[in-house]
Amino acid sequence: MKKLLFFFFFLNISHTGVCDSFPDSLSSQSVIRIVTFGPSEEELYLAFGHSAVWVKDSVQGLDIVFHYGVFDFQQPHFYLNFARGKLLYKMGVNYYQDFKNHYIGENRSIIYQELNLTGPEKNKLYASLLQNYLPENREYYYNYVTNNCATKIRDVLHSVFQDSLQFTYPFIKKDISFRKLIDIYLPLFPWGDLGIDVSLGSGIDHIITGYDYMFLPDYIFAAFAKATLYSKENKKTLISKTESVYTPFINRTTVYPMWKHPIVVFGILVVIIHWISFLEYFFQKRYRAIDFVTFLIPGLLGVYLFFLAFFTDHTSQYNFNMLWACPIYIPVAFFMLQKRNLPWLQYGMLLNGVFLFCITLFGYFLFQKIDILQMPFLFLFMIRSFLYFLR
């Protein structure tokens, strides 16, 4: 986290010295390149990679990178806006060498694609980038899948060249959603993957188009590689040259330790609680603290999901996890502390157990995917519901 904060601080101060040196137009020797920075295994926020536009004009001494995803820690109500998904992100500009050195320091791959543009086309794109960087235009509201560092670059090129720019999508796979693509990038971050799957709603579960794939930098790279630019005279490939700038050395971490994996942690917890539940039923005992914690956790999680769904701009609306993670379980948890079972609550727990059984059995077929990592906890939740009814 400290590295992330330092990098954003670096981005915010370094672009200040760059912005005064922009020429009005590019020379005939200029080049514009799309740079793709690879994912990293170090932190969750680095797992998806990054995209930028590199503008180089050796005649005018210009060597800068336009990119998106910068935010200002000094903006009013920073942390509140961040939590509510209302934080203003902005476009940044950095010297290419500084930018490259940072990513090499993180051991992340760097590869560029040189755009196959004429002089007027380069200047048209460059003018659009400068226009976007004006103080009144550079800020925007971030969205995980529709308005991020990759989609902004796609949208800039599309706004400049419009229907003249045509994409083909050889990488499209059957029945792929935003959620499934995100999952592919997170095998080394199972707890982060679980948090994303629980927090984000069914809006990321519909089948996506090739254009939608470009919310990830890797697919910006893949789509641009096959793109075609049409003009009145002819057509040409969008990319004239692709070159690797830096190839990372092999990372030491290749698999996530199984003993720390959520499926193992929750699985062990289920076995322990299941054994305790058997002893409770057999010896007619009751450990109220276990019931209290078991029902308090989904209750508090329900408050969190309710906040995300109704009070933020995150992609958290229509979250079917609120079927089992519901604030109503908070008062239920306190009723569980009663020494004697409450008859009305016993029948309520029977219905709850049946409901959780249905979610566990048919959750995969809901409009929103229920993560397999959630299943052990749902099973545990179901066991405690039935046990309360049977006592």
Task: Tell me about this structure.
The structure is a single chain. With 391 residues, the chain is an alpha+beta fold. It has helices at 2-18, 78-84, 96-105, 119-133, 149-161, 178-184, 190-199, 210-213, 217-225, 262-283, 288-311, 329-335, 343-362, 375-390, and strands at residues 31-37, 50-57, 62-71, 88-95, 110-115, 139-141, 165-166, 228-230, 235-237, 239-246. The strands form two sheets. The chain has a seven-stranded antiparallel beta sheet. α13 (343-362) packs antiparallel against α14. The longest helix has 24 residues, at 288-311. The two termini are 48 Å apart. The relative contact order is 0.11. Residues 1-17 have low confidence and may be disordered.
